[in-house]
Description:
The protein has helices at residues 2-19, 42-66, 68-82, 107-115; strands spanning 23-25, 28-30, 91-93, 132-144, 148-159, 164-175, 181-189.
Amino acid sequence: MKNFRLKIAAATLLPLSLMAAPAAAGTQTVYAVSAPYAPITVAEVEAAQKAWGDALVAISTEYDRKGYAAAKRLAETVLDTAYGYNMGPVLFKPTLTVAPQTFRTQRDGALAYFIGGDKNYPKDTGFALKGWRSYKIENASVLITGNSATSMGNVMLTDAKGNVTTVDKTWGYVRDGEGKLRIVLHHSSLPHKD
């Protein structure tokens, strides 16, 4: 019986040991990061969404008040605290991107999308610099699967002139090594119009 228990313990540890090592997937390196286990709650997802919305408005107002350099510094801080780029690629498909730069799995692509000014992403004009002043998030649903969560719904962004832009948004979250939620999936698109 002891031998049987030992085999089960070894079998359960094997997947954990593999999680720390990178694995090649095509040309993209994929990392699986072991994080402290604690089920994610809907309240944590909603807090992360609020932090994202607050950060978008903060970057926009920072740009209006203090200029591009200040907005870029703030955007870098937001990316480093809200997203999981330090854990590996992030599945980030921003609202207004086109091929061949539709998907931004690396931090520099996300930064370019939010603030523009990167010659490697010449079509990016800085989504976070569009004068956003407020937001509202309406989740269609939040799916909790233990140590990860996915949300889907609408984000309504209001600019300084009162114009509202609605985007369809899907976010995926996991815990990092310190137990903090990190965005590892961000898909955004404009609603389909007939």
